[in-house]
Amino acid sequence: MSNVTIDYHGLSAFSVDATQTVLVDPWLEPNWIAAEPTNFEGTDYILVTHGAHDHLGSTAEIAIGTDATVITEPAVADHLSDHGVPQDQLQTMVWGNAFADGEMIIRALETRHISYFEGTDGPVSGTPLSFLLEFGEQSLYYLGDTAIFRDLELFGELYSPNTALVPVGSAPGALAPLPPEEAALATEWLGVKKVVPVHYVPGSDAPERFSDAVAERGLAVTVETLKPGDQLTLDG
After folding, report:
1. What pLDDT sits at residue 152?
2. Exposure of 106 by Cβ count < 10 A (0-12 exposed, 13-18 middle, 19+ buried)?
3. Which residue segment(s) compose the domain that 144 sits in?
């Protein structure tokens, strides 16, 4: 198949262009990047790992404007339905589910975090997800927000992802669930060839600390630190 490309939008938001176009955790405000929801025409799927504002972001507006299918956990799906996203554009998943569209397979895997947010009738809690995207020989694992846990090593053994997007810091005003040094250990467990550090405040030293920790472990992995607007091609 053709190459897979990743467009990084900032924090944990990115797009994947392959057999389909997939937008992930589209927090695009406040002024985090220049892109606006109207720039995402042609999006086939939107993946939302959990209901935190820095991941749910502009999902409802983009879904309504593009007719994209949103894949997320049930509590977030109910919240999006309450905010005008049609039911036929909502696909719920829990850990272990796999969703296929042609050559693309999306797997929902466990993450150690919480999906807690303000719903229509008050606070709502759900089950956060991570996503493994498979495009033929290319596979991309996005850990979402997570603390370290040993099943990440099992996921590496089961699915052998080529590339991982790994959180290494925090959202603005929050604490980091996976510090850079632990993120490097998770990268070792996954056995990937490329890793993209995400989920850190611009200007922080988190990506540098992560790169140093990867080097200290002697890992044969390429660290691709992206700025908002950068594109990365994953060679087939």
Report:
1. 98
2. buried
3. 4-234
Q: What are phi and psi of 199, to 5 degrees?
A: 60, 60
From its phi and psi, is residue 25 left (phi > 0), alpha (psi between -120 and 50) or beta?
A: left
State the total domains in the chain.
Answer: 1
pLDDT, one tens digit per residue, over 73-98 is 999 999 999 999 999 999 999 999 99
Q: How far apart are CA 27 and CA 50, in angstroms?
A: 12
CATH of the domain at 124: 3.60.15.10
* Residue 225, token pair as written in the block: 């630190």
**How, if at all, do strands 21-24 and 130-135 pair?**
unpaired
Residue 91 exposed, middle or buried by CB count within 10 Å (0-12, 13-18, 19+): middle
137-168 burial: b if 16+ Cβ within 10 Å, else e: ebbbbbbbbbeeeeebeebbeebebbbbbbbb
